[in-house]
Amino acid sequence: MKLSYRDxxxxxxxxxxxxxxxxxxxxxxxxxxxxxxxxxxxxxxxxFEREVQRIQRELHNGKGPDPSKMTEAEEELQRLSDTEDDxxxxxxxxxxxxxxxxxxxxxxxLAQIAPVLRKFDDTLSDED
Length: 128
Fold this sequence. Notes:
Low-confidence stretches: none
Strand content: 5-15%
Structural class: mainly alpha
Shape: elongated
Helix content: 55-70%
Number of helices: 4
């Protein structure tokens, strides 16, 4: 699946929220898929974050931000964030998240993990 670095980073944050929530009860297979996805995303995101830090260091150059480089840095950050990479991620059925009983999984977290959600019924249709 192709995702921009920005979307991959959001996905990683959402998966970690679910993984770290003590109150959330998920079957082993779902937890395994979440763990696999986290492990597959992390190396890509580390590269992305290193590049962001490099751009920020160049902008500041040991001092305060250099206004003459600000626009160029913002454009480079935007290009980097929009860059797509291919990820081999496991899909998760929305029903397997047991959202009726796992009320600690918030709507914003579901939005973050949307790229890996398998939409098995019309409840997640874009037409609604």
